[in-house]
Amino acid sequence: MLSRRDFLKLVSSLSLSFLSGCLLRVENPSVIPVMTATPIPPASGQPYLTIARGNNPATITRAAIDALGGMSKFVQAGNDVIIKPNICNSYNPPEYASTTNPDVVAELVRMCLEAGAKRVRVMDQGFSGTQAEAYKRSGIKDAVEKAGGQMEIMPSAKYVKVDFPATSRDLQSQHIYQDILKADVLINVPIAKHHGSAQVTLAMKNLMGVILNRNNIHLALNQRIADLSTVIKPTLNVIDAYRVLTSHGPTGGSLDYVMMGNAVIASHDPVATDGYATQLFFKMKPQDIGYIKIGAEMGLGRYDFDQLNVKEVSS
Fold first, then answer.
1. Pairing state of beta strands 236-245 and 258-267?
2. CA distances (Å), 248 to each of 40, 95, 201, 255, 271, in order?
3. pLDDT tens for residues 46-74?
4. Which of 57, 66, 222, 310 has the highest CB neighbour count under 10 A?
5. How high is the pLDDT of residue 31?
6. All structural domains of the chain
7. Is the overall model pTM greater than 0.85, yes or no?
8. Low-confidence residues of the chain, pLDDT below 50?
9. What's the pLDDT score for residue 215?
């Protein structure tokens, strides 16, 4: 039997080894964390995609999810849930439509907690200002905390290097925030907006907010955006189109660039949500957007809407 002193030495040694491994994963050979969050497709007779319209962002968010079968379809009692909005900058308040509407995010938090989630965390890694500044400026921090959720700062030490599967055409590995990969449920909540390089930024592109070295993605932007979806597979995608940034994206900066869309789009399929939002709010065909077209070709989703059960509701 180990003495108390030997036992403490053993525990200390194991703890140091574990912490060292965690901190060095970013530079050491790749590991593929266990994926627990997965898309949940519709049951027979349920809509494949929903769009809810109305004048209240919280109300139409709930209506879109209810039309898909309700949040309890996606969140089970005791689940650890992460909601990933777009909080890309620290200088625009929500009315400028460069960050996800705080009422949309807060309503999703409430619905997850109502479904029995153990905890609901909200996070994003922006490219302008600090995360704390962006969380506050966007209005999302206050809204989420009032709804019972938690805002999480994403430290660089918690990113792990992940090998991509053979289905990825170009990306071989990427550093991804490890809690995104460990969560029971991942809800992806972009705002619909114009983008100078990709034309539009929606659900698939929103995943860039959970990786390091985003400049690497821009080397082959459309293909690598699609490749991210071979590893990061949200349980549910919810596009905030209550306000839509129609030009000068991704940050905008003038109310002249903002259009009222008064809608929320939801589906387990990010290709479908992105394609539907593209044709509805940007007046382009899904196949005109490189990463959406590639995503469909890779089997990551569909935009043949005439063959899909699309349900529109008003609230």
1. antiparallel
2. 34, 15, 12, 11, 23
3. 999 999 999 999 999 999 999 999 999 99
4. 57
5. 53
6. 30-314 (3.40.50.11440)
7. yes
8. 1-30, 34
9. 87
Name the CA dihedral angle for 195, 269, 94, 193, rounded to a multiple of 10 degrees: 20
Q: For residue 282, what are the CA distances in angstroms to 170, 200, 217, 251, 299? A: 28, 8, 23, 17, 24
Tokens representing residue 135 in the block? 């969380």
DSSP letter string, the chain: ---HHHHHHHHHHHHHHHHHHHHHTTTSSP--PPP-----PPPTTS-SEEEEE-S-HHHHHHHHHHHHT-GGGT--TT-EEEEEE----SS--GGGSSS--HHHHHHHHHHHHHTT-SEEEE----SSS-HHHHHHHTTHHHHHHHHT-EE----GGGEEEEEPPTT-SS--EEEEEHHHHH-SEEEEEPEEEEETTTEEE-HHHHGGGGBS-HHHHGGGHHHHHHHHTTT---SEEEEEEEEEE-SSTTT---GGGEEEEEEEEEES-HHHHHHHHHHHHS---GGGSHHHHHHHHTTS----GGGS-EEEEE-
Residues 6 or more apart in contact with residue 74 via CB below 8 angstroms: 40, 65, 115, 185, 187, 235, 236
pLDDT at res. 35: 57
Residue type, 185: V
